[in-house]
Amino acid sequence: DSGVTQTPKHLITATGQRVTLRCSPRSGDLSVYWYQQSLDQGLQFLIQYYNGEERAKGNILERFSAQQFPDLHSELNLSSLELGDSALYFCASSVEGRGQTNEKLFFGSGTQLSVL
Amino acid sequence: GEDVEQSLFLSVREGDSSVINCTYTDSSSTYLYWYKQEPGAGLQLLTYIFSNMDMKQDQRLTVLLNKKDKHLSLRIADTQTGDSAIYFCAEGTSSGGSYIPTFGRGTSLIVHP
């Protein structure tokens, strides 16, 4: 058990809908990362938050947004869903994330999103 | 092309050594990582190597780094069926002041009796 909790584990929804994925980092970790894993794209970095502030942005679509709350949990919001958004979404956390070079990430088990 | 490249599959016999290879592109990467993903689980950090090292050994795992060729390998000695998983190579890539691990597509290691 990595200590990172993601809910829900599975989510089935329809095109055009909006969903929210939730992540609780390990106790004491200040940084949260979101990744999307799909067969065609592999593991793609979406966005990172550090202590409530956006820190780095990757290949995140404009239809997607995220935030980190004062209690350090994070939510990833996916809107106007398309079939191609079906993927496994991982949250990871690390202690720092402020530019330290040795970023050891601890991953949750992921949320499997199926868009029908 | 992709920043981190790995072969997709590797099949070995139980008890043999496994060698998983990876090439990366960012010469400024300070740390390089190997993560393991078992079915239905998230990625788990296996080991990492600092870029000024050539080799790191950790029990059955040996990491070799050729910085000139930007080549990283993971050797698993005495491979067991429990080692069957997907192995990801990652480099720490600078992005907006953070170092974000950039992952390869993963190598599926299949260990058969």
Describe this structure in words.
The complex is a heterodimer of chains A (116) and B (113). Chain A is mostly beta strands and 116 residues long. Chain A contains no helices and 11 strands. In chain A, strands 2, 4, 5, 6, 9, 10 and 11 form a 7-stranded mixed sheet that branches. In chain A, strands 1-3-8-7 form a 4-stranded antiparallel sheet, with no helix packed on it. Chain B has 113 residues and is mostly beta strands. Chain B is 0% helix and 61% strand. In chain B, strands 2, 4, 5, 9, 10 and 11 form a 6-stranded mixed sheet that branches. In chain B, strands 1-3-8-7-6 form a 5-stranded antiparallel sheet, with no helix packed on it. The radius of gyration of chain B is 14 Å and the shape is globular. At the A-B interface, β5, β6 and β10 of A face β4, β5, β9 and β10 of B.
In short:
Chain A is mainly beta. In chain A, 0% of the residues lie in helices and 52% in strands.
Uncertain spans of chain B, ≥5 residues at pLDDT below 50?
none
Largest interface, Cβ cutoff 8 Å: A-B, 29 and 27 residues
| Main beta sheet of chain A | 7 strands, mixed
What quaternary form is this?
A: heterodimer
User: What's the gyration radius of chain A in Å?
Assistant: 13 Å
How many angstroms separate the termini of chain A? 31 Å
Strand content of chain B: over 45%
Rough outline of chain B: globular
Order of helices and strands of chain B: EEEEEEEEEEE
Percent strand of chain A equals over 45%
Q: Roughly what percent helix of chain A?
A: under 10%
Derived structural class of chain A: mainly beta
Number of helices of chain A: 0
Mean pLDDT of chain B: 90
